[in-house]
Amino acid sequence: MATSTKPYLIRAIHEWCMEQGYTPYLNVVVDGATRVPREFVKDGQIVLNLSPEATHQLVMGNETISFSARFSGVAQSLLVPVAAVAAIYARENGQGMAFDVLPDAAAERGEGGEPDRDDGAPPPIGSPPGRGHLTRIK
């Protein structure tokens, strides 16, 4: 079976953000296979800053994305299945790419939810900040 194009597209948008001086944000549908600080999960999703200033030892593989980051001053190791990535985009203009997270896959791994933010957190998939846009990949 051929590897999905999704991890390659995620890495490409991340590289583009870095080259443009933008901050790459990753929107993730959190489930049982996703290792993130649960207290920062809102409506089954979390938005993660993937900039070099925010991450340490970032590894963007074909199956998982792993790194360590500080949350409320405490270093934590994170593990995100590529299948759980809903979008990657630039914080500054919202340009990036959105991906379908298959309901069947999400149901197998845990539960997701529709975003409903009013807490000032980075916007979830479908509502990027500013004048940008996300290109949805199925």
Question: Could you give the count of β-strands?
Answer: 8
Structural class, from secondary structure content? Answer: alpha+beta
Task: Indicate the CATH class.
Answer: Mainly Beta
SSE arrangement, N to C: HEEEEEEEHE
Report the mean per-residue pLDDT as an integer: 82
Classify the beta-strand content into a percent band.
25-35%
For the terminal residues, how far apart are their CA atoms?
Answer: 18 Å
According to CATH, the homologous superfamily is SspB-like
Note the main sheet.
Answer: 5 strands, mixed
Radius of gyration: 14 Å
Shape: globular
CATH topology: SH3 type barrels
Q: What is the total domain count?
A: 1
CATH architecture: Roll
- As a percent range, the share of helical residues equals 10-25%
Instruction: Provide a count of the helices.
Output: 2
Runs in which pLDDT lies below 50 for 5 or more consecutive residues are 104-131
How would you concisely characterize the structure shown here?
By secondary structure, this protein is an alpha+beta fold.
